[in-house]
Write a structure and sequence with these properties.
By secondary structure, this protein is of the alpha+beta class. The protein has 16 helices and 24 strands. It is globular and about 95 Å long.
Length: about 600
């Protein structure tokens, strides 16, 4: 028996009545009823109510004790009276009559309350993260994270995957985000990089003859923080498989996600066979490659309508002539909404930097009419055509925007979400997964106008090598895919290009000469030339999976020790300056601004 406890703070029930017990934990709450002091003692597992009468010699000591002090209590288990049972607590039918106590760890005045989950400033929460982590909600989130990762490991092992650890110190990659750089003491003037992902290593594992690999992999990217992205490091379920096609990867990941989300959440899955949505289709229907499929609203292309002579909406017609496009969203049965409902969306669009959202509602008297500020510019025939394209009915409303493609897509993606939330169309108790497939291999750089890789440069094109249309590279699609849940991208993946000669051709399109490929991807291209199997994989983000399961909107709420928005660890004071001695050892000097 441990000298600190016979039980933890969630174990004791009425069956233990009369037993002498030892509990240790934190003083969570105190309630002074004059002749009786109630203390809620908390540990990692739960809370137990303890009581002490005023006539006990150490009553005053416990009465004055600072919350969050760590104490050991020796006492007797008593059943509570029926009317005082707390059904919301595992130990709610008992309490501990304190016979003696021992102070194990004193506590200073608290900078934030631990007994509640009230909002507190980010600076205080991150500086005192060890206190923040004692709070019920975030403590539960971190325990959930541990359970999910353990479950993933069990499932991957059952499926024949072998876990390996890839290097943390590696070479800098010319593709992707910014690297974190580490100077080499033994190789002056040279640097390692922390891995943005184990991408090349996991492919080399396949080349090495291992068939199925996985890893709960730490990844490092010098990126700006977002709600769903940490500014420095994150973890992903990295996996790779040999002798597979795209659907083989989907099968493994779908099965795993369904098991995870069914086991660790009470929310329902909208699809147990995840939809496969081509990239071109998702950009048209949802204006994003991260669609929230809980949202039933779709987006339609109405550019052709503004090329008709019987449409007199000259502002849009002139924009279309100069290369702009028109996208629209239909809302069902909104004819009785007040004018303010529609005007608020127009004001919102202007606040987003757009010129606004035009709108009208379909009505019918003798003929079909459009009720709204711009309705008069559309003929009956044009309205019929719009209804045919969009599937709109009488009583439905339409919101539309006209601008250059990138601007319209950005606005309409956000508008689709805002309209759906305002109309209460999204079921918050649902998870909606999908695959986005058929990504283009290349895109045009908006700054230079040159061709560049749009996704992963090591992907296999969806065409045989001898049928590559090198003159029209933007038409080449790749075996690249994203998995998305509730509008959050969990991961990108691909079937890899395992043929060196094909890789040279594809990199040449993006402006890389053979020597460039050999120099920048030396380890990979060399390995592939010694007999590589067809292989592919993906790496779903652990942090984002936990964020969805916990119902959190910010990734910091499921991360043990996160950094702030400026990539600073306020608790450990990182990053920090290093001494002149350390700089000298690394053959470095710093330049002050």
């Amino acid at each position: 028996m441990s000298k600190y406890r016979t039980h933890n703070c969630s174990e004791l029930t009425g069956n233990n009545s009369g037993e002498n017990v030892i509990l240790s934990g934190w003083v969570h709450k105190k309630r002074d009823h004059g002749n009786l002091l109630f203390i809620d003692l908390r540990d990692n597992y739960g809370t137990t109510q303890c009581i002490i009468e005023k006539d006990k010699p150490f009553f005053k000591e416990l009465e004055k004790m600072q919350l969050e002090s760590v104490i050991k209590i020796i006492g007797v288990v008593n059943k509570r009276a029926p009317e005082t049972i707390n059904k919301g607590l595992k130990t709610g039918e008992i309490e501990i009559n304190i016979k003696s106590y021992e102070m194990l760890g004193t506590c200073k005045e608290l900078p934030l309350p631990v007994f509640s989950d009230q909002e507190y400033s980010e600076e205080i929460r991150l500086k005192y993260r060890f206190l923040d982590l004692r709070r019920k909600k975030i403590h539960s989130n971190i325990l959930l994270r541990s359970k999910v990762i353990s479950f993933i490991r069990e499932e991957m092992n059952k499926n024949g995957f072998v876990e390996f650890q890839t290097p943390i110190l590696t070479s800098s990659s010319p593709e992707g985000a910014r690297d974190f750089i580490v100077p080499s003491r033994l190789n002056p003037g040279k640097f390692y990089a922390l891995p943005q992902a184990p991408q090349q290593f996991k492919q080399l594992i396949m080349v090495s003859g291992f068939d199925k690999y996985f890893q709960i992999a730490p990844c490092f990217r010098d990126e700006d923080a977002r709600a769903d992205r940490s500014p420095g490091e994150f973890y992903q379920l990295d996996l790779e498989m040999s002798f597979v096609e795209q659907e083989d990867v989907f099968s493994v990941v779908e099965s795993l996600m369904i098991k995870i989300f069914k086991k660790f959440s009470d929310k329902k899955l909208l699809f147990e066979k995840f939809p496969r949505i081509p990239y071109e289709e998702t950009m048209l229907k949802y204006a994003t490659d991260k669609p929230d499929l809980r949202n039933p609203l779709e987006i339609f292309d109405l550019t052709s309508i503004f090329e008709r002579k019987d449409v007199k909406f000259d502002i849009f017609k002139n924009l279309v002539k100069s290369g702009s496009i028109v996208r629209a969203i239909i809302t069902k049965n909104t004819k009785n909404k007040p004018r303010s409902f529609f005007d608020n969306f127009d004001k919102w669009a202007k606040s987003e930097g757009a010129s606004g959202l035009a709108y009208f509602t379909f009505e019918k008297n003798k003929d079909i009419e459009a009720k709204g500020p711009v309705g008069k510019f559309f003929s009956t025939e044009a309205l019929n055509e719009i209804m045919k394209i969009t599937g709109a009915n009488i009583g439905d409303s339409i919101f539309f925007s006209c601008d250059k493609e990138a601007n319209v897509l950005q606005l309409m993606s956000s508008a689709r979400d805002k309209i759906a939330y305002d109309l209460n169309l999204i079921d918050a108790n649902t998870f909606a997964f999908c695959w986005i497939v058929d990504y283009p291999m290349y895109e045009t750089d908006k700054v230079t106008g040159k061709i560049k890789f749009s996704h992963n440069p090591f992907s296999m094109p969806q065409v045989e090598e001898d049928k590559l249309d090198l003159k029209n590279p933007l038409k080449i699609k790749a075996y690249q895919y994203d998995i998305v849940c509730n509008g959050i991208e969990l991961s990108s993946g691909a079937i890899r290009n395992h043929k060196p000669e094909l890789m040279y051709k594809l990199f040449e399109i993006a402006g890389y000469k053979k020597n460039d490929v050999d120099e920048k991807f030396k380890g990979m291209i060399n390995a592939l030339s010694f007999g590589a199997p067809p292989h592919g994989g993906i790496a779903p983000g652990i942090d984002r999976i936990i964020m969805l399961l916990a119902g959190e909107k910010n990734i910091r709420e499921v991360t043990l020790f996160p950094m702030n928005q400026n990539a600073q660890d306020l608790m450990m004071n990182a990053p920090s300056e290093i001494s002149e001695k350390q700089l000298k050892e690394l053959n470095l000097s710093t330049k002050k601004k």
